[in-house]
Prior knowledge:
The protein is of the alpha+beta class. It has a single domain (38-161), classed as Alpha-Beta Plaits, CATH 3.30.70. It has 4 helices and 5 strands. Strands 2-3-1-4-5 form a 5-stranded antiparallel sheet. Strand 4 (143-153) and strand 5 (160-161) form a beta hairpin.
Amino acid sequence: MIPGGKSRGLSHVSSDGEARMVDVSEKAVTPREARASARVLCGCDVLDMIMGGTLSKGDALATARIAGIGAAKRTGDLIPLCHPLSLDWVQVEFDRVSEGELLISCVARTAGRTGVEMEAMVGASVAALTVYDMTKAADKSIVLGPIQLEHKSGGKSGAFTRS
């Protein structure tokens, strides 16, 4: 069941109920883009250090940006049924949205037969995990999440934008 009570077949499940990779060989190559976000909730003083680049481990945002980009590129290796994609562009950005909340956004683009939603979500997730790793000595109570798809475009299913 999907939200709203509608039922839809799952493309990664065969008619026998077994997990399978989806055959996208007959799908058209189209431009695809997805944006996902992850939130990091922590103390104001810790977020000040993150934003100011004054953590003892170094610049958490620069490190998290590189980690997020690298993770997006490796999504096919991390998620068993994801197709390995050649990404044309990945961007990871950070925005302090409140005293103790950091918003991480990851955008992924490609021209391909399948979407880049998972690449954007993995990029945002790993960037958030990297921020945690860089700051855990200062605050072990940091909370990560939610991690969510914000927007996608391209492909047969069309556009989606979180309301």
